[in-house]
Amino acid sequence: MPIFSFYIINKAGGLIYQKDFEDYKANKLMVNEHLRLGGFFHGIHAIAAQVAPVAGSSGVEEIEASTVKLRCFQALTGTKFFVTASPSQASLDVFLSQVYEYYADFVLKNPFYELEQPIQGCDKFVAHLDALVASLSA
Amino acid sequence: MVGLSSFSYLFSELIRHSQSRVTAIGPLEAKLDAAGFQVGARMVDLISLREKSGKREVKLKNVLVLIQTSVFRTLFGKSADALAQYSSDDAEEYHIVDNEPLVNRYISVPRDMSDLNCGAFVAGIVKGVLAGAGFPAEVVAHNTPDDDGRYPYCTTYQVRVTAVDVRAREK
């Protein structure tokens, strides 16, 4: 059921936002490990789009394992939103498009946010994200 | 009618543009205030013409009610939530309260600037309307989150009329 972690990476592959939600049993990642994971996923995504047998592949959309599922949404600007959750968690694509809307509203329309930089101090974005995750876990 | 997104991007750029030219919060608010004043000064005639068939309000209280209702409704789609009078020895003081200011809907102010309220723009509008109606006043936007946390971004526009001749006229 639960959502584990949520990530936003900018079009250069840099992690600009990350948040852990569920207190999962596996070891917590450190900040640097999150950064590496973000960059790594960016690479996989780019390679997958290149090696795909059909032209115009959108890259990785979902990775599923026995204990975890990763769902990715790439905006037209190249900003990627991805979330890790337990495999039984449904409607992650709806979740991601909703978060994209919050990002467009509360981050991009915030005059104090610098484009492509880490998202800090966008309290309203975080509040809406938390509420959304809470509504999914309820 | 203007889309909320279009307005928000424009307002956001207004703030960024103003911010790039100042180094402190006070001057930034002054710039937003000045921009709002131009809007308010134009609203006086528009509102009088639309709602009062060209007649001007001549009483301070009536102008403030007009701001709370017609001006806010025209600009933001809803009236301000409260208008209250405060006793003060050296001024006619009124507070206009907006529980969820539309201009701040998408704005999160960084912690190191927590005193800033971009509602300074709206304070400028109120000031502009009052000045146009013949009531030069000081208007300041304050962050006034309510106690039970329902409206954490509640903003109060504090209106103070200190000019002696204007106060005498009101008596």
UniProtKB/TrEMBL annotation, chain A:
Keyword Magnesium: no
Compartments where found: Endoplasmic reticulum; Golgi apparatus, cis-Golgi network; Golgi apparatus
Keywords: Endoplasmic reticulum, ER-Golgi transport, Golgi apparatus, Transport
Domain of life: Eukaryota
Transmembrane segments: none
SUPFAM superfamilies assigned: SNARE-like (SSF64356)
InterPro entries: Longin-like_dom_sf, TRAPPC
One BP annotation, GO: endoplasmic reticulum to Golgi vesicle-mediated transport
Presence of the UniProt keyword Lyase in the record: no
GO cellular component: endoplasmic reticulum; Golgi apparatus; TRAPP complex
Any Pfam family hit: Sybindin
Oligomer and partners: Part of the multisubunit transport protein particle (TRAPP) complex.
PANTHER family hit by this protein: TRAFFICKING PROTEIN PARTICLE COMPLEX SUBUNIT, TRAFFICKING PROTEIN PARTICLE COMPLEX SUBUNIT 4
UniProt similarity note: Belongs to the TRAPP small subunits family. TRAPPC4 subfamily.
Record protein name field: Trafficking protein particle complex subunit
Organism field: Thecamonas trahens ATCC 50062
From TrEMBL, chain B:
Main location: endoplasmic reticulum
Protein's cellular compartments: Endoplasmic reticulum; Golgi apparatus, cis-Golgi network
Coiled-coil boundaries: none
GO biological process: endoplasmic reticulum to Golgi vesicle-mediated transport
Entry GO CC: endoplasmic reticulum; TRAPPI protein complex; TRAPPII protein complex; TRAPPIII protein complex
Sorted UniProt keywords: Endoplasmic reticulum, ER-Golgi transport, Golgi apparatus, Transport
PANTHER family xref list: 41-2 PROTEIN ANTIGEN-RELATED, TRAFFICKING PROTEIN PARTICLE COMPLEX SUBUNIT 5
Subunit comment: Part of the multisubunit TRAPP (transport protein particle) complex.
UniProt family annotation: Belongs to the TRAPP small subunits family. BET3 subfamily.
Protein name (database record): Trafficking protein particle complex subunit
